Amino acid sequence: MTSAFKDQMLAGKTAFVAGGSSGINLGIAQALARAGARVGLISRDAGRIEAAAGTIRAAGGSALGLAADVRDFDAVEAALARTRAELGAIDIVVSGAAGNFLAPALGMSANGFKTVVDIDLIGTFNVFRASFAHLNKPGASLIAITAPQAHNAMMFQVHACAAKAGINMMVKCLAMEWGPAGVRVNGISPGPIADTEGMARLAPTAEMEQRYKARLALRDYGDKSDIADTALFLCSDNSRYITGTIIDCDGGSKLGDASADALQPPPRA
Ligand code: COA
Ligand code: NAP
Description:
SDR_fam, oxidoreductase
């Protein structure tokens, strides 16, 4: 956690992180716990989510790991109810469960497309919709983890682009509907983040990684802590007047191709 955030600023709060067994979402869960929040986490795999919760408890935090698939509304609802019963009414919800693979549209079955839309888009609706009854209102903060694919068309990413674009619009609609109840709804759009499953899938070779970095304005991958710090901001009082917004923590990904090749000016007449 950076010095911009007060120690234990989330003491007494309860958070729920969907897709929290690894990567960016686990990094967020760990940062919320370091800031004093009690954290409920879900993912499909009972062993992986229990291990993730264990890392938080080993560091002195309070965590409950539960197996639930975000495609199953009843399972998500049950996990939220148990989190509330054991850790208290929920102040912070992070919806970051996702699935992805590189495939051309013509190399993808209808079920392949549907699987990613079900996990990312429908899953986020399920998590947010089921959470509403369990929220500490007013004052709750909901955060969707989206991606630059929501804005930037990308080869072999029709499923993820469609799903994440849907999430961005869902954030705005829910922010309008739930703002009067004192519930803020925002998103974080991470750029390429080092040491994650997502980038292992999108840029699996060192050469692809270099090409990715060369196109970025900031010329490097981000760290999981960059996304965790953005999440801390979105669930702190420092962002109390921000809702319906997607924060791009992406090294400039959304700006487009910033590579030297793209910048060659024509000879001056
Ligand atoms: N190319 C094309 N289609 C693929 C594919 C690939 N690389 N990987 C999976 N699919 C298709 C499958 O063939 C299947 O379609 P079918 O029934 O018509 O054959 C469909 O996707 C569902 O696959 P399945 O393995 O049954 O789904 P699942 O629910 O067990 O797993 C995935 C979901 C496919 C997204 C899997 O990659 C996953 O669990 N991902 C989580 C981790 C992750 O992606 N992290 C990065 C987050 S950004
Ligand atoms: P990751 O480690 O694979 O995280 C995905 C998580 O979702 C895992 O905990 C996985 O756990 C869980 N999950 C998958 N399907 C699920 C389901 N149906 N129900 C419940 N949980 C499910 O990947 P990551 O790269 O860190 O990505 C995390 C988030 O950041 C995603 O939303 C991704 O789109 C976004 N993002 C990542 C990057 C990047 O650079 N990595 C860039 C932009 C956006 P189980 O396998 O145990 O279920």
